[in-house]
Specification:
The complex is a heterotetramer, with 2 copies of chain A (304 residues) and 2 copies of chain B (271 residues). Chain A is of the alpha/beta class and 304 residues long. Helices cover 32% and strands 21% of the residues of chain A. Chain A has one domain (7-55, 73-194, 217-297): Aldolase class I (TIM Barrel, Alpha-Beta Barrel). In chain A, a hairpin with a 2-residue loop joins strand 5 (61-64) and strand 6 (67-70). In chain A, helix 2 (106-117) runs parallel beside helix 4 (145-156), helix 4 packs parallel to helix 5 (174-183) and helix 5 (174-183) crosses helix 6 (222-235). Chain B has 5 helices and 16 strands. The radius of gyration of chain B is 18 Å and the shape is globular. The B-D interface holds B 42, 44-46 and D 42, 44-46. The structure holds flavin-adenine dinucleotide (2 copies), flavin mononucleotide (2 copies) and FE2/S2 (inorganic) cluster (2 copies).
Chain lengths: 304, 271, 304, 271
């Protein structure tokens, strides 16, 4: 019997719990030759702002031990071009597309949400309060529970779509942040975004990234991500989406055990553009082989 | 396309420079010169990211015995500069590598009548051989190749076998003319007029000088760029360069991996 | 000419900036067959408490991508046994021994410092306010600037020895913590301690560590450590000691460029018990080859 | 001691089980049975930590030609269970590995008069061969070897060549007696009295059963333990087990790497 892989994120029903992470999967179209997009649960598009953004100067990425730093600086086409140029492709797939968005002010967050409310190709919204790259940007909202709650309420009042809040790991107490966002009526929480890090080039005596610091992703951060997902899943009743260093189905299932309802695949898309599809398939296979009828049976099943 | 390849040979052709031949699927035969590949060097998280390399050559090995198969192969020419390339240098025949290829936009061949001038600096020579093989079918081709010292001058014989006139220069004069490859090229360009296209790959200062010459003399010119890459397919936005329209208030970033690596020099912002 | 590798940590003069990190080098003696202890700047002993401590149940360690989690739980012999059994060996080496200490209360910290004040083999004190493994332990002190300052002042009033405060990376704002400790009269700051993480075993559906969570160390955390050292070194005038994923001389020199006066080698001691000596030698060699007369010339020389 | 070794051979002796022979420095000849080695599987951060393995054998290869040298070698018998051992299984002759060895305290040989009873479960056989080679010099030795199925029974021939009486058992009866190795051992111990010492290595439940038998019958017994290790030299305190005195208020933890891996069963807390 085929295991039931479907999960629910608020009112959004996904065929399976594998979602591609914002900023690592373009707008979906880039991957269509490598991957059957109908095989994954959902895609999340590159962080979107009201106006187009240039992003940071280069170099923007560098490999670090079992990870990478990025300081893309949220380069994106802006909401108008997104609606005009990126939604037509999204219409051709049945897999829901969730839009990751950010603003520099509460008003920008709210306006973006309101713009997207009318766009049928947008199945849900992921609010990035945690991007560490932009000076005036998410960083303030992402580390202060009151500010985060204000953003979430503002977006909530403009959208009926499922609202996911993406949490930053660069905080003393991620549970406090999670609770604040839950109370502000988020439908789900996703975590973690990148850890702020830095790389130095001894030869040039300069930071490797033009932006000096960047966001650390990849296998290196998996232990931190698992810990935070576990802490948050215990503390809130909302669905939690686990992110951080997920490279294969085993990693993904570990997050489910720790309490995640769904997971996101980020850096792994760069190593293998087919990764998300393979992970979804292999998770299902694991369930089948172990006689588990539904993925929900594993959720939070960690015996502590 | 994602595929696994077996190493057929991997030799040091000059100190620190290697030439590796691996098996490839037949579909790769339709790759164009200037396109590139991304290699997963080890089945391990170290190194984590794929490494980009130009296509030095693609060809077909005839069946070795009756009932055997033809085997398409891919060649890379690479320089050991860090962890990933150092690991590549230790690979042996029979080892297996994982490829994402072909990627990006290659060189546009242009008008067959005109002369084709190839300009390579150091390891920047890598994508020019596959290009030269295609160009000599229809056009006159000359190669200007430069390096810091004679050990940075690679594969001249291969180009000469194609019937290509080759001009070598080194910064220290240990091989060919002493001086910058762009100086040598400009001297020779002065001698003759006519319709020309420059194809160039090498370090940024060299490309800058090449672009200057092309602009001053109104010569068509394509350059192949390098950038730090994570995905190789336009998803991460890590590899961008400034386009010619770039300004603080009107950003014009282009992905080297997807819109390049080959650009018409006029598409780019040169500082 | 031999480069000048000496550095000063408060009143403590080290022959070179390479120090072995607490908990990764035992009490020094364990490594004497592998390493000439006279070749390194200083050693820091395993976290010490007033009473002996059993530590956590096992498993206590697990490898993670480019890192490891440990939940040793600060097992240690206690101050009496330390003085009786561990100082005799320390007396036989000229390399200064710094004692890493922790307590469950301010009073315990102060009492420990006062006990060690009379022990001549103790060249300095490193106060661990950041160990994430012990529930009632350092975690509170390490994430609240006021509490941290109170601990530092209490220790300061009991010791004339150089006083280093070791900072936790599990905070929103490490600079705030650093400034608080600096104002409380610390002589130097060391960072980072481990990031809190977790590992899950899919087969058993249990956390790998008996303690559930543990501290992440090794190359994986280097980008986070470099970033924090850079931030802190800009913000305080005290000497900063860089820690986190230092495996070789290049890593060490990157921390110096980022502003560290000295560095600590932790997990690398497990991969190669001679690592600290090799790092010291190769740093010196780098200076010699690059015509740098003194290590101080590289300190904070990062061009940003 | 830290040293680099070259792989001399690396064969699969049973599905999933490998035997690897590497070069070793002459100083390793003084290692005792039961001591262990820590291997850096790759010169990379993946895997990061060294992996501990027992010493299956140490010996000397005679010089292969006039003017050649004797070569000391070390053998390991290992089971592929995860990343590190999977990578080891891909190594070839000529590959180089990094060792920290010998580590820990080995078996104490005890009174040569008494009979020596070796009890190995699965890959727990690994350290017993080197031990057996030393023991047979002076004592009568018997080996009880158990496994889940016949593929887990390794190297019986090698022990028999030493003149050791060997009793095989498998849980599923596919080789030797059907049942637990400890049951078989106990049956045979009943038959004869006399001064004995048990030396055992294998999974924890087996060791527990062995220790029970030893206690009940007052037989001297040494067991070799496994634990997750980072340093292998008593520095990280990661590998501890509870000693016999352990209690909540009076902790008695022992390092497997430094105080073990071989313990007298009475030193340990058995639950
Ligand atoms: C389109 C393209 C084609 C290339 N073709 C060739 C070729 O044919 N032959 C050849 O020898 N080299 C080529 N390069 C450069 C080659 O990719 C780098 O030398 C290589 O990635 C270095 O890897 P490493 O692990 O040895 O070095 P490390 O310094 O350890 O690499 C660390 C990181 O920096 C990146 N990096 C380092 N140098 C470069 C660089 N010059 N360009 C891009 N990323 C870099 C790596 O990808 C990696 O992420 C090409 C680069 C690009 C972008
Ligand atoms: C003193 C000692 C002697 C040993 N002798 C042998 C031997 O002769 N032959 C043999 O096949 N195995 C032996 N083992 C077990 C062997 O060390 C592990 O099977 C091996 O480390 C697994 O590594 P991996 O990367 O393949 O597995 P992974 O599961 O990927 O390892 C992950 C981590 O867990 C640790 N680990 C996993 N299993 C064990 C284990 N059973 N014991 C200790 N650590 C473990 C690894 O060291 C590593 O840190 C011995 C262990 C010890 C402590
Ligand atoms: C190149 C790159 C760009 C990213 N851009 C965004 C973004 O625009 N918005 C966002 O919320 N997260 C962004 N992220 C963070 C990822 O979505 C994800 O949270 C993080 O990479 C951790 O997951 P991973 O370890 O699987 O990569 C980006 C990550 C990378 C590597
Ligand atoms: C096994 C282990 C035990 C540790 N014990 C202590 C300790 O007792 N006190 C302390 O302040 N830090 C302790 N640490 C943290 C290290 O001193 C160091 O801060 C950390 O490991 C980061 O450095 P690294 O990446 O070089 O290992 C321990 C680390 C490890 C791996
Ligand atoms: S390398 Fe990712 S967009 Fe070019
Ligand atoms: S492995 Fe480190 S103390 Fe035993």
């Amino acid at each position: 019997m085929k295991p039931d892989m479907s999960v629910e994120i608020g009112s959004l029903k996904l065929r399976n719990p594998v979602i591609t992470a914002s900023g690592t999967f373009g707008y979906g179209e880039e991957f269509k030759d490598y991957l059957n997009l109908e095989e994954i649960g959902a895609i999340i598009t590159k962080g979107l702002s009201l106006k187009p953004r240039a992003g940071n100067p280069t170099p923007r990425i560098v490999e670090t031990p079992a990870g990478m730093l990025n300081a893309i600086g949220l380069q994106n086409v802006g909401v108008d071009a997104f609606i005009e140029k990126k939604t037509p492709f999204l219409r051709t797939i049945s897999t829901p597309a969730i839009v990751n968005l950010f603003g520099n002010t509460i008003e920008e967050y709210a306006e973006l949400a309101s713009r997207l409310e009318q766009v049928p190709e947008v199945a849900g919204i992921e609010v990035n309060i945690s991007c560490p790259n932009v000076k005036q940007g998410g960083i303030v909202f992402g580390t202060d529970p009151k500010a985060a709650a204000t953003v979430v309420r503002a977006v909530r009042s403009e959208t009926t779509k499922p609202l996911i809040v993406k949490l930053s790991p660069n905080v003393t107490d991620v549970v406090e942040m999670a609770v604040a966002c839950a109370e502000a009526q988020a439908d789900a929480l996703s975590l973690i975004n990148t850890l702020t890090g830095m790389a130095v080039d001894l030869r040039t005596r300069r930071p490797v990234l033009a932006n000096v610091t960047g966001g650390l992703s990849g296998p290196a951060i998996k232990p931190v991500a698992l810990r935070m997902v576990w802490q948050v899943a215990k503390a809130v009743t909302l669905p939690v989406i686990g992110i951080g260093g997920i490279m294969n189905a085993t990693d993904a299932l570990e997050f489910i055990l720790a309490g995640a309802t769904a997971i996101q695949v980020g850096t792994a898309n760069f190593l293998d553009p087919a990764a998300a599809g393979i992970i979804a398939r292999e998770m299902e296979q694991y369930l089948a082989e172990n006689g588990i009828a539904a993925i929900g049976e594993l959720r939070g099943a960690l015996q502590v | 396309m994602l595929f696994k390849s077996m190493v057929l040979s991997n030799h040091e052709v000059s100190p620190g420079y290697y030439r590796m031949r691996v098996t490839a699927p037949p579909e790769l035969l339709s790759a164009s010169p200037g396109q590139f590949v991304m290699v997963k060097v080890r089945d391990s998280i170290d190194p984590l990211l794929r490494r980009p390399f130009g296509i030095f050559d693609i060809g077909v090995l005839p069946a070795a015995y009756d009932g055997g198969c033809e085997q398409v192969y891919l060649e890379m020419l690479y320089k050991v500069v860090g962890k990933g390339t150092a690991m590549m240098a230790t690979l042996h025949n029979g080892d297996v590598l994982d490829f994402l290829a072909p990627l990006g936009n290659g060189f546009r061949m242009g008008n067959p009548q005109g002369e084709k001038v190839l300009v390579g600096g150091g390891i920047g020579l890598a994508p020019l051989y596959f290009l030269a093989k295609k160009l000599v079918e229809n056009s006159k081709v000359r190669l200007f190749i430069g390096g810091r010292t004679r050990e940075d001058i690679l594969c001249v014989t291969e180009f000469e076998r194609l019937g290509i006139e080759t001009y070598v220069s080194t910064d220290d004069g240990t091989l060919g003319a002493c001086g910058l490859v762009t100086e040598v090229m400009e001297r020779h360009l002065t001698e003759d007029g006519g319709d020309k296209t420059i194809f160039s790959c090498g370090p940024m200062p060299m490309l800058q000088a090449v672009a200057d010459i092309a602009r001053r003399r109104s010569i068509a010119c394509q350059v192949s760029l390098e950038a730090h890459m994570a995905c190789g397919m336009g998803a991460c936005l890590g590899c961008v360069v400034k386009g010619s329209e770039h300004g603080d208030s009107h950003p014009d970033y282009r992905c080297v991996c997807k819109e390049g690596p080959v650009f018409n020099f006029q598409q780019l912002m040169w500082v």
